[in-house]
Amino acid sequence: MSPVDQAASRDEHWMHQAIELAKQGWYTTRPNPVVGCVIVKSEQQIGSGFHQRAGGPHAEVFALREAGIAAQGATAYVTLEPCAHTGRTPPCALALIDVGVSRVVMASLDSNPLVAGKGKALLEAAGIACTVGVCEQEARALNPGFLRVMAGGLPWVRLKIGMSLDGRTAMASGESKWITGAASRMDVQHWRARSGAIITGSGTVLADDPAMTVRELPELESIADIPQPLVAILDRSGRVKPEAQLFRQPDRLRVFGSRSPVAAVPAHPAESLVSVLEQLRDRDQVREVLVEAGPALSGAFIQAGLVDELIVYQAPTLLGERARPMVQLGLERLEQQVRWSLREVVRFGEDVRLVFVPI
Question: What is 189-207 written as a DSSP string?
Answer without folding.
Answer: HHHHHH-SEEEEEHHHHHH
